[in-house]
Design a protein that fits this description.
Elements: E1 2-5, E2 12-15, E3 21-25, H1 28-34, E4 39-45, E5 49-52, E6 55-61, E7 67-73, E8 79-84, E9 90-94, E10 108-110
Parallel strand pairs: 3-10
Antiparallel strand pairs: 1-2, 2-5, 3-4, 4-9, 6-7, 7-8, 8-9
The chain binds zinc ion (2 copies).
Length: 140
């Protein structure tokens, strides 16, 4: 089982199972939402993730017209989970909030077209300009 928490500890989560993909995302929403050059997240089946604490929610449309809902600690603001109606049944957990996150390896870079010149990635990873046409279960 994996677990994690926000910066202040008011929000915690537990996860069963393995991620379907671990990705770096450079989209502008992730840049603003993380305050950094990209977000790094691991996607899990929603049913495998239990989040507790005083969680705030912010929903907005994605460029592709889906609704993206971000869940974050209402006290310290740490981004915890994001879900996308285009990928129903799955949630992406911010890797930096996870206990022992180095047991997971990022596998792919998405929205590389929005990458900042100062935010260099491992160039051995496959990189996509935007979100590839990919569904959980396709493999990486
Ligand atoms: Zn917090
Ligand atoms: Zn993104």
């Amino acid at each position: 089982m994996r677990s994690g928490q926000c910066l202040c500890g008011a929000c915690t989560y537990e996860i069963d199972g393995e991620p379907v993909v671990v990705a770096h995302c450079h989209c502008l929403d992730c840049q603003r939402g993380s305050g950094a050059g990209h977000s790094t997240g691991a996607m899990f089946a929603e049913a495998d993730v239990r989040l507790s604490g005083v969680v705030s929610t912010y929903a907005m449309p994605s460029a592709a017209g889906n609704t993206v809902t971000r869940r974050f600690c209402g006290t310290c603001g740490s981004p915890l989970l994001a879900s996308n109606t285009g990928m129903a049944g799955f949630v992406t957990v911010s890797l930096g909030t996870m206990q022992a996150p180095d047991r997971l390896e990022p596998q792919v870079v998405v929205f590389a077209r929005s990458r900042r010149s100062w935010d260099r990635m491992d160039d051995r990873l496959p990189a996509y300009d935007a979100q590839p046409d990919w569904k959980p279960g396709d493999g990486v």
